[in-house]
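ARCHIVE RECORD
Type: protein–small molecule complex
Small molecule: pyridoxal-5'-phosphate
Source of inputs: curated submission
Record status: active
Notes field left blank by submitter.
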Amino acid sequence: MAQFDASARMFVRGEGNYLFDTHGKQFFDAISSVWTILHGHCHPEITAAIAEQAQTLDHSTLLGATHPSAEELADRLSDLTHLDRAFFASDGASAVEAALKIALQYWQSNAKPERTRFVHLVDAYHGDTAGAMSVSDIPAFKSRFGAITFETQILDDAFEDGNVAAFIVEPIVQAAAGMRIVPRARYESLKDRSALLIVDEIATGFGRTGTLFAFEQLDLQPDIVCLGKSLTGGALPLSATMVSERIYDAFLGAPDESKQLFHGHSYAGNPIACAAALANLEVLERSRSLERTTELTAILQREVAELKSLPKVRDVRATGLMCGIELDPQRFDSNHSLTPGWSVTNALFERGHFTRPIGNVIQFVPPLTSNEGEIADFCRSLAEVLG
Ligand SMILES: Cc1ncc(COP(=O)(O)O)c(C=O)c1O
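STRUCTURE (tokenized, with ligand):
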């Protein structure tokens, strides 16, 4: 923050794949506003759905009541995930937090209260709230907060199977770890398990890896799926924790049994956000976005492949439209006041591309509506900067 200059990065408008600053200069949103924007900014169908819903029912609680947009969206998401029930919240971390609590309570209701442990991937990231942080594994995000996190286990290490409440994994790619691609073999043990499986599709969901959900490519059968980010196409905060009927049933009982999940947020399943999500899913289906993603993936792979040979590039990792270009910090001037990652993304910004680094990894996660020229132009600019 000491180096952040608000006046230099003040976006006042978004249209299609571009953000516009106060001077009217346009920037290609090469990071899809942190993996949220799917069909470009201010998509007319999504903004129209928002406007219509805002004029009809702005908000009503999901605590002991419901509304048509939440009902319809829950049904749509059930069809898409093959999980039966939806628990709504606003941010991704809230969906993860709910998933962890649902898993714990599920085992209590099933007379296995000893199942309290969570197992995650090495280098995992599931959000910044206390529970989500606990099942994450990136020191920068959690090392200072040991006082409010709980102990967890890593999938590759030995653990007591009978104590595990749930495995939680990011499918295929660990975005926050710097677009790390997880070897497929690492998911094998999850196919035969007694604990629950939580798949976190917050970064990968809704087409970014080429299929609607990344877990489809891994042949996993999750019990719980967390959705967020692109659920509304990037227009509004909304997340969902999808669960199977078997899990849902564990929360049903007579009032004096208190089996319900004592967990909820004021704006959970806000009608305007749900309407945006419904419009987003409509656009996703109608505009053949998944087919387009397959075509774009081939273009992206071809263009980023050229970057691999640059001396300042240590590695290039990509799956679908999620790509990370890792820089070799030893090839950069160590006296520079900025990290290599920031000096490169700042130079890209001057050339009209907006992204940010994760450490020394340059993120390239273009919207699904990007075209060949935009992808090639970003890669050309990056090659120029690194040259
Ligand atoms: C895999 C994954 N899970 C959870 C989250 C947290 O989502 P949010 O930032 O909406 O809380 C993120 C955010 O980047 C993520 O990448």
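CURATOR ANNOTATION: The mean pLDDT is 97.
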